[in-house]
Design goal:
It is a single chain. The protein has about 300 residues and is α/β, with parallel strands linked by helices. The protein folds into 3 domains: about 10-140, Conserved hypothetical protein from pyrococcus furiosus pfu- 392566-001, ParB domain (Alpha-Beta Complex); about 185-240, no CATH class; about 255-290, no CATH class. Helix content is about 45%, strand content about 10%. It has 12 helices and 7 strands. It has helices at about 55-70, 100-110, 125-135, 140-155, 160-165, 170-180, 185-195, 200-205, 210-225, 225-240, 255-265, 290-300; strands at about 35-40, 45, 75-80, 95-100, 115-120, 270-275, 280-285. Helix 5 crosses helix 6. It is elongated and about 90 Å long.
Length: about 300
């Protein structure tokens, strides 16, 4: 009787799904789950990885810690295809999946070699794992998270529902996150730097005009306004920019009023005819979906 296949582990379980129990029990060679010491120059960052902003002060503190005690946790990498025409002496190259902050700090600390664990995954799966790792560590700022969600949807065919299931979040969380991408670039940058919180950003989105939104963002940062204060200011700004009430429309002609009366009688609901120089539109009002069905039945007979 054949052995049952090991069930696939969800990405949401984190890096414990990637790492072996210990380096001592890792299989020999450089295949899946191999743990070994690798020259740091052979490890390269992932192109377009979810995390883009690294706090300089925190990075220097981590580098100092690595100088004192070394790099305690291996970097998670995947093996890259060989470079065409590269000499054999160049050696294998590895792309980071998880641990770019530690990789950067290790470079600052002057490490020549780093401990890595190899994961045999596709570029798409590598991006997923990188995002999951950052989400679980809460390393991504709101804009980076929104851009990562957008990339998975646009480039990798995820729906919001499937993505929410994959990363263990509510679909409305995904939708609210994606709304942040409507912010102007200068305001996005302020969110990435931590000058504005996600709550501030969502409040600012009430203002439809980009120029007004940026002015309001400046005011919020300068005044150190709370999210509640920002919401109130955004509502005031939106109200001040509302379009003026249009003038009262011209009196309808007798023929147009007669046409409205006949349509209303025929369809059993209020109808409006909006005519401008012989061109226009007809509006049919209904109070419920049942009433709409009744109107459609009469029109389609």
């Amino acid at each position: 009787m054949s052995e049952k296949a090991e069930p696939r582990r969800a990405l949401g379980r984190g890096l414990d799904a990637l790492l072996p129990v210990s380096a001592d029990k890792a299989p020999a060679g450089f295949g899946e789950r191999s743990v070994f010491t690798c020259p740091i120059e052979r490890v390269v960052p992932m192109k377009g990885q979810p995390r883009q902003h690294f706090d300089e002060r925190a990075l220097e503190e981590l580098a100092q810690s690595i100088r004192e005690v070394g790099l305690l946790e291996p970097l998670v990498v995947r093996k890259l295809p060989p470079v065409t025409g590269a000499p054999p002496a160049m050696g294998d190259r590895y792309e980071l999946i998880a641990g770019e902050r530690r990789w950067r700090a290790a470079q600052r600390a002057g490490l020549k070699d780093v401990l890595v664990v190899v994961k045999d995954v596709s570029p798409v799966a590598a991006f997923e794992l990188a995002m999951i790792e950052n989400v679980q560590r809460e390393d991504l700022n709101p804009i980076e998270l929104a851009e990562a969600f957008h990339r998975l949807i646009k480039e990798h065919g995820y729906t919001q529902e499937r993505l929410a299931e994959r990363i263990g979040k509510d679909r409305t969380t995904i939708a609210n996150s994606l709304r942040l991408l409507r912010l102007p670039p200068t305001v996005r940058e302020r969110v990435m730097k931590g000058e504005l919180t996600e709550g501030h950003a969502r409040a600012l989105l009430q203002v439809g005009d980009d120029a007004e939104l940026q002015k309001l963002a400046d005011k919020v940062v300068r005044g150190r306004l709370s999210v509640r204060q920002t919401e109130q200011l955004a509502r005031q700004t939106r109200g001040a920019g509302a379009e003026p009430t249009p003038d009262k429309p011209a009196q309808k002609s007798a023929s147009v009023r007669d046409l409205e009366r006949r349509l209303s009688l025929a369809l059993g609901t209020r109808c409006e005819v909006r005519d401008q120089g012989g061109k226009g539109e007809i509006a049919v009002h209904y109070a419920s979906l049942d009433a709409l069905d009744a109107v459609l039945d009469k029109i389609l007979k």
